[in-house]
Specification:
Elements lengths: L17 E3 L15 E7 L4 E8 L1 H16 L14 H7 L1 H24 L22 E8 L13 E6 L4 H14 L2 E4 L9 E10 L2 E12 L3 E4 L2 E4 L1 H5 L7 E7 L13 E15 L5 H6 L5 H33 L8 H21 L4 H13 L1 H21 L6 H15 L3 H11 L1 H19 L3 E6 L8 E3 L24
Parallel strand pairs: 5-13, 9-14
Antiparallel strand pairs: 1-2, 2-3, 3-4, 6-12, 7-8, 7-12, 9-10, 11-12
Length: 500
């Protein structure tokens, strides 16, 4: 049973307390079925508390099978294998037999509950196996918590109205995109001139809170753009702050830690940062040489310019899809007032980030832009993931009910576009995605995209001019300001405990 929501199968989870006995179970007459008494209680939209009692008869039979298996392989001095009395084995290997019986009873009963009650967990059931004692005689009872897909009613989306950014790319769009693309391939060279917007500075960054140094980053690189992002904070006005600095200069600023920081006591806190400049670097933009063009699959400079236009169209299509998607899902999730377990939200944060990276890569964003976006995602990871999970459940339900799946051609086309953007062979992109486990994310992403397209074919649109493509305006640092700190507090957004 996978803990990955993207790969979990659809299920019909009970929405009220359910009690079943052996006589009422669907497979009660099946010789392989156990006689179970099962009680299922709702503990929220996505959580079930399940109490199970396995009949004494089933426990006895499993124990007898375990002892019989041991007879055939146990080595006891004075007896040939297969001839050791069962009573002696029970006495000599009692703990081992109990452990084997407990494992087999749990596995069989859990499989039967999943089958009989249509419950397939999103993650592993939380069972305190070590505290369980298998009885020598009588029934065996245990209980556990499990996360399941939420039960909800889809709203009527046929009357939705969506604002759609539209229009052909402008020369300014193409110029800005081409500049960003070439910048992503530029080389950095050391400069003796004062730092100007767009340059890089290599700094020693010292972060201070309440008079105490909380972190020092030695020799960290940052580009002079309007905003400098950390995974847990953002510094606006960075280019203006650092403009004109040379080696040996220093500048100071204050940043506010994100409210999504995993260090609870630092959320919303003001931290001072001191930048001590060790080097200034300037971009050396690439020439459109034959070698450079060949690396990205272009036959000529004209082919390159046409490729940039195609890439801009893809970017605007991506932005249109993102804008309409957000509006659509915002309207659809307005009625999704069910809460998600915090543990499930945290488990899925990484998946949400990976899916966003894939979409940006396919849309032609540069590696620097993608990493910058990752830091923004991390700043608000929990809230973003909570919303993304609700959206996933809704889209998965729509895709399942309408038999929506990506074709092999869909997947190959996406791989081709990613390969061209990065200047790498398709086979290399495919191998990298398969090795990292992101190929499945790609398929899941395409499935959701097709579900969104299906929904968008049903809604009404109000077309407006698209937002212009801008030159890069955000830089990033990979390290969190509070990355070396350990929280002394507990995140109380969801304690993980059951409500009374």
């Amino acid at each position: 049973m996978s803990a990955d929501v993207d790969q979990a199968e659809s299920l019909e989870a009970p929405t009220a307390t359910v009690e079943d006995t052996a006589e009422g179970a669907a497979d009660a007459n099946n010789a392989d079925s156990m006689q179970l008494s099962v009680k299922i209680e709702d503990r929220g939209a996505c959580r079930r508390h399940i109490s199970v009692t396995v009949s004494a008869k089933d426990v006895f039979e499993v124990r007898e099978d375990a002892v019989s298996e041991l007879v055939g392989k146990a080595q006891v001095p004075g007896f040939r294998i297969g001839k050791v009395p069962k009573a002696l084995l029970r006495k000599k290997f009692g703990k081992e037999i109990d452990a084997d019986v407990k494992q087999k009873v749990l596995v069989r009963s859990l499989e039967q509950i999943t089958k009989d009650h249509g419950i397939e967990p999103l993650g592993e059931p939380r069972i305190d196996v070590d505290s369980m004692e298998i009885p020598e005689s009588g029934d065996f009872s245990y209980q556990f918590e499990v996360e399941v897909r939420p039960a909800f009613t889809l709203p009527d989306f046929s009357g939705f109205t969506i604002t759609r950014p539209s229009g052909e790319p402008t020369p300014e769009d193409i110029e800005a995109f081409t500049h960003n693309f070439l910048s992503s391939q530029a080389k950095r060279v050391t400069s003796d001139a004062p730092a100007a917007p767009g340059d890089f500075v290599i700094c020693r960054m010292t972060f201070t809170w309440n008079g105490n140094v909380v972190r020092v980053l030695e020799s960290e690189s940052a580009r002079l753009l309007p905003t400098l992002n950390f995974p847990d904070a953002a510094l606006n006005g960075f280019a203006e702050l650092m403009q004109g600095v040379t080696v040996g200069d220093s500048r100071e600023a204050t940043v506010t830690i994100s409210l999504q920081s995993p260090i609870v006591e630092m959320r919303g806190e003001a931290v001072s940062v001191r930048f001590e400049v060790a080097e200034v670097q300037r971009y050396q933009m690439p020439d459109l040489s034959n070698e450079f063009l060949d690396a990205f699959g272009f036959s000529s400079e004209e082919d390159f310019r046409n490729g940039m236009v195609d890439a801009v169209v893809r970017r605007l299509t991506y932005q249109q899809r993102q804008d309409t998607r957000e509006q659509l899902l915002e309207q659809m999730t307005a009625s999704a007032d069910w809460d998600l377990p915090e543990m499930l939200v945290r488990q899925q944060t990484e998946n949400a980030t990976r899916r966003e990276v894939l979409e940006m890569s396919q849309a032609g964003f540069t590696p620097d832009q993608i990493i910058a976006r990752q830091t923004q995602i991390q700043q608000n990871a929990l809230e973003n993931t909570r919303a993304a999970l609700k959206q996933h459940f809704i889209l998965d339900r729509i895709a399942t009910e309408n038999e929506i799946e990506p074709s092999r051609e869909d997947i190959e086309q996406e791989l081709f576009l990613m390969a061209r953007q990065r200047g790498e062979p398709v086979r290399k992109i495919r191998a990298r995605l398969a090795k990292s486990g992101m190929l499945e994310n790609l398929e899941a992403q395409l499935r959701e995209r097709k579900a969104i397209d299906f929904l968008l074919s049903k809604v009404q649109f109000n077309d407006v001019p698209h937002a212009p493509i801008q030159r890069e305006d955000q830089s990033f640092v990979r390290h969190a300001i509070c990355g070396n700190m350990k929280s002394s507090l507990v995140d109380d957004t969801d304690s993980g405990e059951d409500s009374p």
